Amino acid sequence: MDDTTSKLAFDTDWQYDPAPESTDHVRVDDQYELFIGGEFVAPKEGRYFDSINPANEQVLARIASAGKDDVDRAVKAARKAYETSWSKLKPAERGKYIYRIARVIQERAREFSVIESLDGGKPIRESRDIDIPLAAAHFFYYAGWADKLEYAFPGKQVAALGVAGQIIPWNFPLLMAAWKIAPALACGNTVVLKPAETTPLTALKLAEVIRDAGLPPGVVNIVTGAGDTGAALVDHPDIDKIAFTGSTAVGRLIQNSQAGTSTIYTLELGGKAANIVFDDAAIDQAVEGIVNGIFFNQGHVCCAGSRLLVQESVADEVVQKLKDRMETLIVGDPLDKNTDIGAINSAAQLEKIESYLQLGQDEGGEMYQASGSVPERGYWCRPTLFTGVSQSNRVVQEEIFGPVLAVQTFRTEQEGLDKANNTPYGLSGGVWTDKGAKIFRIAQGLRAGVIWANTFNKFDPASPFGGYKESGVGHEGGLHGLDAYVSLA
Ligand code: ADP
Q: Least buried of 54, 319, 328, 336, by fewest C-beta within 10 Å?
C-alpha cells in the first residue's frame, strides 16, 4: 500500500454494514439450577444471582448460588460416581463418553458461540473461531488418551487421583471448562467445577450436553456461585485435587489454604507478557501480532501480550503503525461479525481498567486511545497504549486484563531480555525477528512458560500451557495436562 492509499484507508469515514450473528437458534432459560448427581437441582438456601450481558447491561438469566451444603452435595455425588462407576469403567469406555461430549459441542458450536459472546462480551469471531472449536478439540484430544495412559507414562502404574475441584475464570468460560474437565475425566477422576460468576452459561449448557451424553450421574457436577462457593470447594475435606485458573491474589489464598494438606493443586494465574520486536522483524506482521496479542478479546487473556518491547531503531515506525491499526479496530456489538473488540466482561473489570488508565497518566505515561465511537450502554474500553513508561511504572508491572498496551524500547538483545523478565510474572512471551538463532536465544532467556515466535496467542490441545514465578504452578494441555490428574508409581 503506498502512502496515498494508506492515508485514504484511514481518513475516509466509511463503515462496515452491521453483520450480526443470528440468535434464533439459541435458548437461554430464565433460570438455571445447580448440576449435581446428573440432575439440575435448586440451591438449598434458595439464593440466586443474575448473569448480565455486558454489551447492554441486561439480565440474561438468574443463576443458582451454591452454598456450603450444595458444594458438599456435589462433592459427595462426585465421590460416589468415582467409587461406583467412573473408576470402574474400562478406559476405552471413558474415552467414548468424552468423544461424545466433543462431538455434541461441535454439533452445537453455533449455539455455544453465541451464548459465550452474550454472556462474556467477547466478539463472535473469537468465540466462533477460537473458544468453541478449541474446547471441542480438547475433549477430542483427551478422549484419545483415556485408554493409552500407560503409553503416556511408560513403565509406570497410572492411577486416578479421585475427586477434582476445579475453579475457572470468565475470560474463556467453555474453553477453561474443557481444559479442566477433559483431562480429569480421561484419567478416571470425577469433577466438581465452579464457573466464574459473570460467565456461567456455557458451563451450564455443557452440563446439559454431559447429561444428554449419558455420563453416569455425578461424574461431572457444576456448582455456580461467586468466590465463597469457590472457597467452599477449595476447603472441602474430600477433594483430592484442586485446579484453579484466575487471579494471582486468589491463587495465593488457595496455596496458603492447602499448606499442610495432601491435596494436590495446580494454579494458572496472571501474566504480563512481553512481545519483543527486533529491527529485523517483518514489521507489518509484528504489528498485527501485537494487535492480536492485546486488543482482540479486550485483553481478557492471561497470556496477553500486554507489554511491547521494541528495538529503538524501529520504535517510531512500529508505534505509528500500531496507532494507525488501532484506529481501524471496531469496538462494539460482540455478536457482530465485524467486531474486533467486544464488551469488557463486567462493570467491576471496566472500573479496574479505567483506574489503570488514570494511574498510567498520573505516573507520567503518555496515553493514546483510538478515536472510534463505542456504544452508549454496556462496558467498553477503546484500545489504548502507553508510551513514555518505564520498568517501575505500575502499568508496566501489573496485570490490567484490558486492551491496554505498555510500550518500552530497548537497544541490545540483553536489554530486551532483561526488561521482558523484570516482572513478577512468567506466563508467556513473544519474539519477532527474521533470525532463527535469535529466536532460540530469546526463547531460552525468557523466564516464561509459553513463548511464541513471529506469532502470538496460538493454542493447541497437544501443547502444554503454564507459567513460572507468580504465574502459577503446574501445566495444563498436552501430556503435562494428564500428569496433573494421575498418581504414578
Ligand atoms: P478474576 O480477577 O479473573 O475474576 P478471580 O481469581 O477473582 O479472578 O476469579 C477466578 C475464579 O475464582 C472465579 O470463579 C471466582 O469466583 C473464584 N474465586 C474468587 N475468590 C475465590 C476464593 N477465595 N476461593 C476460591 N475461588 C475463588
A: 328
Helix or strand holding residue 372 (H, E): none
pLDDT digit string, tens, across residues 25-61: 899 999 999 999 999 999 999 999 999 999 999 999 9
324-347 in b/e burial notation, b at 16+ Cβ within 10 A?
A: ebbeebbbbbbbbebbbbbbbbbe
Ligand 1, atom 17, residue with closest C-alpha: 227
Which residue is closest in CA terms to ligand 1's atom 26? 230
Q: Is 268 a catalytic residue?
A: yes
Closest atom, ligand 1, to C-alpha of 234: 25
Ligand 1: centre distance to CA 275 (Å)? 27
DSSP conformational letter for 127: I
Q: Which residues lie with the beta carbon below 6 Å from any ligand 1 atom?
A: 167-169, 194, 196-197, 226-227, 230-231, 234, 246-247, 250, 253
Per the residue annotation, which of 302, 398, 399, 476 is the catalytic one?
302
Q: How far apart are the first and last CA of the chain?
A: 61
Domain limits of the chain?
A: 31-269+471-488, 274-460
* 31-269+471-488 matches 274-460 in fold: no
Q: How far apart are CA 178 and CA 106, in angstroms?
A: 13
Convert the pLDDT of each residue in 236-252 to its tens digit. Answer: 999 999 999 999 999 99
Residue nearest to atom 3 of ligand 1 (CA): 246
Using the Cα atoms of residue 382, residue 335, residue 337 and residue 429 in order, give the sign of their dihedral: positive
**253 Cα nearest atom in ligand 1:** 23
Q: 485 exposed, middle or buried (CB, 10 Å; 0-12, 13-18, 19+)?
A: buried
Q: Which CATH superfamily is domain 31-269+471-488 in?
A: Aldehyde Dehydrogenase; Chain A, domain 1 (3.40.605.10)
pLDDT digits (tens, 9 = 90+) for 244-295: 999 999 999 999 988 888 889 999 999 999 999 999 999 999 999 999 999 9
pTM over 0.85: yes
Distance, CA of 329 to CA of 295 (rounded, Å) = 9
299-331 pLDDT tens trace:
999 899 999 999 999 999 999 999 999 999 999
Q: Which of 250, 266, 269 to mutate to test the pocket of ligand 1 (most atoms within 8 A of CB)?
A: 250
Domain spanning 274-460: CATH 3.40.309.10: yes
